[in-house]
Design brief:
This protein is α/β, with parallel strands linked by helices and about 290 residues long. It contains nine helices and 16 strands.
Length: about 290
């Protein structure tokens, strides 16, 4: 399944882009409306982008009343990203949701103060109030993200979204002061991919849970590498800002990449990086 990373696509503004995907992930919703951080909130870097949006969103009540009904008209499976500042914030929003594909719990946004409760406590609170699939979105910034993955799995998570952005900074070369008003922001784009691969690999090995892999996906080969590390689904993020045709292009490139390795479906390459017994053949080159 090809998705968008939360916050990287407004399906109501660009429905033709959203319909290229297999499902749409909303921007993170919090109980109360948020204006987000002061501008500037986006900065380009040599290998990606920094953002410090700060979870700007209309709030739960307006989302449910106005935005979600319009998103249903897209006729796409909908994933709702849920955020908050304590377990009750997350649970209250999850309890109000129904008729969607899944809930993504944003447990690791680098642009707001962190939730006071632990990731596992938040997942457990949400599991108690909803039967919907729960995907825990984690950051690779934790020193042992595999341990966090095991904890949220034990608390009732049905899957993982990996990875969220990593905190970074950009300086204005003319002033040597931070470009972003907040100072730091979340790094996304190509520079994030090696970290995403390592995190997906570690968390799949630790839990065997379904994973939405994301972080620096620009091509079909990038998507294939995440799948080989253990991702069942792949999300596009930063690439959507520069290339609105990326979903179709990446899908086509993934198909060609699979063909080059002599397999047909993404499932044929799933978790291949964990196996020492099988090989994929690309031309005359054996990949063990």
């Amino acid at each position: 399944m090809l998705l968008n990373a939360s916050g990287c696509l407004d399906a109501l503004v660009a429905p033709e882009v959203a319909r290229q995907l297999d499902g749409f992930v909303t921007k993170t919703i919090t109980p109360l409306p948020r204006e987000g951080n002061a501008p500037p909130r986006i900065a380009e870097t040599a290998h990606g982008m920094l953002n410090a949006i700060g979870l700007a969103n209309p709030g739960r009540e307006r989302f449910l009343a106005e935005h979600l009904p319009r998103l249903r008209d897209l006729d796409l499976p909908l994933w709702v990203s849920v955020g908050g500042f304590c377990a009750a914030d997350y649970a209250d929003t999850c309890a109000a949701l129904d008729g969607i594909e899944a809930i993504e719990l944003n447990l690791s946004c680098p642009n707001v103060d962190e939730a006071a409760d632990s990731a596992a406590e938040i997942v457990a609170a949400c599991r108690a109030v909803t039967p919907l699939p729960l995907y825990a979105k984690l950051s690779a910034a934790h020193p042992d993200v595999a341990a966090v993955a095991r904890a949220v799995a034990a608390a009732g998570a049905d899957g993982l979204s990996l990875i969220n952005t990593l905190r970074g900074m950009a300086l204005d070369p003319r002033t040597l002061r931070p470009v972003l008003a907040r100072g730091t922001g979340g790094l996304s784009g190509p520079g994030l991919k090696p970290v995403a691969l390592a995190t997906v690999h570690a968390c799949f090995k630790a839990t065997q849970l379904p994973i939405v892999g994301m972080g620096g996906v620009m091509t079909g080969t990038d998507a294939l590498e995440l799948i080989a590390c253990g991702a069942r689904h792949v999300a596009l993020g930063t690439v959507l800002f520069a290339d609105p045709d990326a979903p179709g292009r990446v899908r086509d490139e993934l198909g060609r990449a699979l063909e080059e390795f002599g397999v047909v479906q993404p499932d044929d390459a799933h978790a291949f990086a964990h196996s020492s017994e099988k090989t994929l053949e690309m031309g005359s080159k054996l990949i063990a």
